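The protein record now logged underneath.
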Amino acid sequence: MKTILSIAAIAAVSSSASGALVAAWDFQTTTTGGTAIAAFPNTQTTFIANFGTGALYLDGSNGSSSFTVGGSATEVNAFGGTAINADAGIGMSTVTTSPSALAIAGGTLSGGVYSANGKSMAFVLNLAGLQNLTVSLAAQRTGSGFTSQVWETSTDGTNWSSWGSFASGSGAGTLASSFATSGVLSLAGTSALDNAATAYIRVTFTGATGSSGNNRLDNIIFNADVIPAPGSLALLGVAGLVMRRRR
């Protein structure tokens, strides 16, 4: 009987600490209040999460840079997307026709450098009661698009810590020339934002060598684990002790 109770206790704690959706963007779904991306020249610079709770900024606020929209050298655009990394379980769209994905482009050439190089977009999430944030997404780059995406975290929108990066390449896990070749890009769980009521994630783009050279992004998903309640941790300890005594 004690063994059965111990297993039940461990299962309860395990369930309470399972992964949870924080926020996701397919740039199409509006049933939950999310922002559907608009075709150029009306592409937005703020996107409310299509699932979960969060926002993506490219307007100069919340740790982001101010991206320019408009003209032949626009830095933000909308193109066709992909079904890769679209989670059917939460209802993400698999429609791929334009406009269905966010594109960050090189922008204006000035002094030999394209203007969007070094600019950052920023996500703002609520991770209260959550830990071990992960991210996954679909991405591709054109031949003159950005060769690097550096991802960083912050709890104040000012001081940043490295999380990881994606670089150009020709295979899975890189910024390849097609969504299919790149596959799902992901970063392992970070503890830097555990239990942060306001969590910032910044993505900085570099390496574009053309005005229209771009990185296209779609189906961005942030997940995290629920932080077990103190009582649950104590229960797990008791359950472990009982099982050791049984052995």
